[in-house]
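Sample A.
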Amino acid sequence: MPYDESVPPTPRRRPPRAAAALAVISLCLTAAGCGAADDDGLPGRAAEPRPGGDGTPAAAPSAPKPDRTSAASSGPSGPSPRAVDRTVSGPLSGKTVVIDPGHNPDNRLHTREINRHVDIGTGRKACDTTGTATESGYAEARFTLDVSRRVRDLLRAQGAKVVLTQDGDRPYGPCIDERARIGNEAGADAVVSVHADGSAVGNRGFHVILPGLVRAGKADTSKIVDPSRDLGARIAGLFLRATGSAPSNYVGGKTGLDVRKDLGGLNLSTVPKVFIECGNMRDPKDAALLSSAGWRQKAAQGITDGISGYLNR
């Protein structure tokens, strides 16, 4: 779920956009294949507290061990990421991509810090949230970090320079405004924030969140709305192709695309950026997919293919 939301989203009915639907279908037909991988090898962890009072907090999960190839320099709430040049020559050489793993496994240990409000242009929101979890306790923060690392590796193999906003190497966060700032300061050609939703049982499928037109305070998305829509549509089509998952049946009019103006990570971005909600962790069928390492590799492949298609357009 988006990290600058404090409760799971409620279904929003929007009229489907014909152009968006056609983009998803046409991209799906021309998409590349997908891969698979073994389990991530991380030990099981207890669930994080669920937003909106839908569960009782369990034992705190420990943060995944950071990948030492993503060295970081110190920042006020922990290390600030910087990319390590381990790229190879490839079709994405010279391109910079920022991947933003939503939430942080140890956010629940820092409630004071993550509840601090920050400016998102249209108002103020909490620095971060704990995220959601499956009924069996697989935390969204663990899911997003695993998928993000897989995307990083696939993009690097194509020559891209990849920055993670966090790699399990911070005590909490980063805050939503800092996440946007990391992409801006990197001069990223594309930014993707990886999430999983926390909606009602029966709500299934993925959706990609696009920035709406916002001009308020520190926020001005006027230059990124169109390229972000292009990026998001490509990711939606190729994610569908790689995973076989259908577009959301509860958000976006079954186009796989949704536009929002209330997310600080999008409002404060000055470079093309989207969120992807890979599925609904609170639905048992979606949860089974999200908990599968093989499916997560397919998800990473779909996200990567969408980014590559956008950057090579």
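Sample B.
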Amino acid sequence: MISGTTEKGPIAGIALACAGYACFALQDAMVKWLVASYEVPEILFMRSLVIVVVAGVLVRYRRHPSIFQSPYRGTVVLRAALMLIAWLLFYNAARHLGLAELTTLYFSAPIIVMVLSIFILKEKIGAGRWIACIVGFIGVMIAANPSHSPNLLPALMCVVAGFCWAWSTILIRLVSRSETTLTQMYATSLLFGLACALSFPWIWKTPDASGWALMLGLGVIATIGQFLLYEGFRHAPASTLAPIEYSGLVWAFVYGYLIWAEIPAANVFIGALLIIASSLLLVLWERRLEGARKKSAQY
């Protein structure tokens, strides 16, 4: 078993989470490309299949104990269900909402993570973390700049998706106290993929060559992203990493330019600067706290 804390501390967790969210932003870009031709459950099944194969091989090679015999197995099932609901709602809402509306609504998730971490994980939320999270959310609002109120049902779908993702994030931290990253990835994706496969009689469409390549590539990117994010939550509290999720918006702008030659407006750059500033503020805050703890331990 691997404990929930390590010597590397929250700075390592922040770095790992940043890299993980960069992968997830690329994943979203690939799904955006695929969803025009394929249904969401089929795309998510292929994503899960790659994760199951890679994580399963590594779990067997390293002889990690089965997570289905863990006292947290019920939590793993719950997390898989939450992730399934979140992904289905989010990507289906994307069919009806503009990117600005979608982004603004979804990025309520980090705030929810911080609130849930107080009640579920009993974490203490300092002023620095609250300020970083609020500044990041303001940055998202400025960058997204919604021009009109979204449709009620798709908006509700996106907000519920954000809540489910936030709850599943909290559960990562809880399970990471005793279970390895690879076993979590294997079990969650296995349950996730089986649920998606139930819809195949109604939605399956055999991919062409480019479809297969994109779906398999999606699975590889998702595998790397999940591993980095799970490891991040092993090194740092959920509330610490919540504002780092905003960095995914910056990566989304980068991928949008590289793939579709989208040039963000001035408000997007202003919002991105605030998001980056919130992440830097968080790093400085954590370093200050870590220095204070070390100094206190010496006396």
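B remarks: Confidence is low (pLDDT under 50) at residues 1-7. DSSP finds 13 helices and no strands in the chain.
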